[in-house]
Write a structure and sequence with these properties.
- By secondary structure, the protein is mainly alpha-helical.
- The protein has a domain at 10-59.
- Helices cover 41% and strands 0% of the residues.
- It has three helices and no strands.
- The protein has helices spanning 10-22, 29-36, 41-59.
- α1 packs parallel to α3 (41-59).
Length: 97
């Protein structure tokens, strides 16, 4: 019988591990692997529920986003010959007339 098999004790075990983390405890490597190997949809939903509780407890309901924006893409630039990988090259100007 594999550790990821479905039985009635999975939700209780997930709750036990989740509660331990909420109280400042840690998971052992085998415990974390057991959670990772859960396959039953109900067990995964239970795990997600506990993960959300842990997130709310330690991080609250706010998130911080970071993004990288490509400012060069889009319309043809005025300096079409600009090559960021070659800063020593002189740019070629187009449409200056």
């Amino acid at each position: 019988m594999s550790m990821s098999s479905v039985d009635g004790s999975n939700p209780a075990r997930i709750a036990e591990l989740g509660q331990r983390v909420l109280e400042g405890g840690e998971l052992s490597r085998p415990e974390a692997l057991w959670l990772f190997e859960l396959e039953d949809q109900a067990d995964v939903v239970t795990l997600f529920s506990w993960a959300n509780r842990v997130r709310q407890h330690f991080k609250g309901n706010k998130i911080h986003l970071c993004s990288i924006v490509n400012v060069k893409a889009g319309d043809a630039p005025r300096i079409a010959g600009f090559a960021p990988s070659r800063p020593w090259r002189r740019p070629i100007l187009h449409g200056t007339g």
